[in-house]
Amino acid sequence: MKRNVLLSALAVALLSLCLPYPAFSLTLTFEDTRNYWPGWGNGSRDDSQDTIGDPDFTGGTITVEGAFLKQITFSFKEWESGTTWGKLHPGDLFLDVDSNKSWDYVVYSDDDKLDNLVTNYTTPTQWSLYKLSGGLPLGSASAVPAYYQKSGGDSADYWAGYLIRDDHPIGLASTDGLTSVGTVDFSGWGSTQLTFDFSSSPIALTLPADLTLGFTVNCANDVVYETVRVHTPEPASMLLLGTGLVGLAGWAKRRKGQKPQA
Question: What pTM was computed for the model?
Answer without folding.
Answer: 0.82
